[in-house]
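BACKBONE STRUCTURE TOKENS:
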Amino acid sequence: MNKTTVLSLLLLTAVMASAQTLDYTIPSGQTLRFSTSPVHASVLWQDTALSGHIILPDSVTYWEMLYLPDSDVPYDSVRRTVALTGIVQQAFSHCRHITGIEIPATVASIGEAAFAYCTSLDSIRIDVRNAVYASPLGSNTIICTIDSTLLAGCRSSAIPHMVRHIYSYAFQGIKGLRIAALPDSLETIGNYAFAECDSLTAIHIPATVRHIGWYSFRQCPQLTTIDIAEENPVYDSREGCNAVINTGRDMLEQACPATVIPQSVRIIGQQAFYGIASINRITLPTALAEIHEFAFQNCTGLHSVHIPDRVNFIGDNPFAGCRSLDTITVDSANTHFDSRSSCQAIIRKNNLSLVSGCRSSVIPAGIHRILPYAFKDIDGLQRIVLPNNVITLGAETFAGCIGVHTILSADMTAPEMAVNTFGGIDPDIPVHIRPGSLASYQSRWTYFHNFIEDFPVGLDEPAPEEKDYRVVFHAGLLTIDANHPMPLRIYDLTGRLLHSTAPAVHTTLHLPTGTHVVLVQAGCHPVEKVLTIGF
């Protein structure tokens, strides 16, 4: 082999391995980012400030730098012109100011969600010579002609009658789309296909549809009509409920602000009611057996919920992010769950786990685990009180509870934490623990910095200059002397009221062994002053 051949092979290796990213000005005047190789080019993720009508070229011309193997110093450059063959997934996602797109015949690959959230997009055109994609006249859609799949649409789209599949994310985040007229040829609707279409008011699902993906109509705040053809063998919207129900499983899979849960529903699916802020109360059917994970997540207007007696399965906190929720009860006949001691939480009986809480929850004594997401995004929660014998706290149990300003933990051994258990809570808030337990909490609760070994003394105790009462405890006797008559209430850590007294300047009580929370009302305008005392 001569030197010329060796050099040629080296150059071939360098060229074949080369690829680069470049900014390129297209015929319509905008500068886009492309990925290039010696044989083709693809449109990459674009700056969301991109605007106007986009005309993609059928080829890209650029100068490619040539390198020897294991060298970052170019020895030469070559001018190349390569065909534009691809648009990567999410390439134009969130480009809210583009108004039109023209795609050349050379493009043979378009990734999912390529035009999601393009809220100003009104025009989609594809070169009629394209062998893979088409945009039938006036439809303003991208159709894969190989299998009649609609890949992307816009607010002025009209879904052609030959479409068999609507791809995932096809219309996600498109504003201005009011009614989705689905053709009788349609067989499948992909994940998030119409999610976050904030103007969508009605959708009719034909009898031919056999599969509806996850969250296809999630967070469509104006959607008030979901109607499914009576002849559909897989799905129904029984009793005019305005929901997607899996007929064979009696499972409500997708809801809207106008949904009324039929009494025959046995299962509420994962994130079925996600983000429906207008719901302030729900009536769960007596036949209900399962509530799947995050079923009512971020229903921020929801105030109360009652779990029926037949419910035997509850997934990861179905009420995460329901920041207005302050009443959670479980039917007393339920054999799997309860809300003992009026704790305003859901407790799983078989393993003493707290599944779901709210801003008014009191974690009851005897609980061993607080499950993942149990209080997630409850920003109205202000104080966390963990009783004795809590062993584990799950992933994101209190994540997003940004209103929490104090934590009390009664156990000498810090409960085990998981990933992001307290994410979003100020790591410098006071964490009150028992004397002698500091080493355990410092090793396990590394998120926090301000441990105070005075549990349970000192929570929200008034500053010395504000004190107008004195609390003394000795030999089981609690004495409170005040400068003027004050009422007080005493609770245990489950939130159960033990004592309540009329206003007095001198109060003496015998208390049992345990940990108690003493609330004294002080000041001209009564404000609760909290003093926690351990016995």
